[in-house]
Design a protein that fits this description.
mainly alpha, Four Helix Bundle (Hemerythrin (Met), subunit A), binds ascorbic acid
Length: about 150
């Protein structure tokens, strides 16, 4: 789409919507981060099933999913923008306003997510479940610590 078409489409969208331009951008950011987390779960779920023995361990599949997770772990942070939190945002989100109030802690946990997901991908590339298991648990603990503090 060229700029003129895009502007026209946006203008039409704005005319038919009660949302302001700023709110449209916020909803895009919320949808973006929720999409990333869906992709995270899509990959992390089967990895968890393999770690728990609910699904047969397939080293190639596990490693591919761990590499996906390592890439995905770098992506959600930019979706946490001003006005996108539960209580302020007009749409649906479980992201608590504590994220904004305690951004340093939140960004720190997201950074741990990246570090731990990279370590899991590294462990997974060797295909050894004894090394994978603790690396997987570190990532799961990081997920939980963020949910406990910052997710409704
Ligand atoms: C998952 C999932 C999460 C995390 C979290 C880890 O499989 O959907 O949100 O692991 O439960 O503690």
């Amino acid at each position: 789409m060229n700029l003129i078409t895009r502007t026209a489409v946006l203008a039409a969208l704005m005319a038919s919507s009660p949302l302001t331009l700023a709110e449209v951008k916020v909803s895009d950011a919320v949808e973006y981060r929720q999409g990333i987390y869906k992709a995270v779960r899509w990959n992390f779920g089967p990895m968890g099933d393999m770690v728990k023995g609910k699904q047969k361990f397939n080293a190639d599949e596990f490693s591919r999913r761990a590499a996906n997770l390592a890439a995905l772990s770098k992506m959600p942070l930019e979706g946490f923008v001003a006005g996108s939190y539960n209580g302020t945002y007009s749409g649906s989100t479980d992201a608590l306003p504590a994220i904004e109030k305690d951004w340093e802690t939140f960004a720190g946990i997201m950074s741990d997510f990246e570090t731990n997901a990279a370590a899991l991908a590294e462990a997974a590339s060797a295909g050894d479940m004894d090394a994978i298991r603790p690396a997987f648990m570190s990532v799961a603990k990081t997920c939980k610590s963020c949910h406990d503090k910052f997710k409704d």
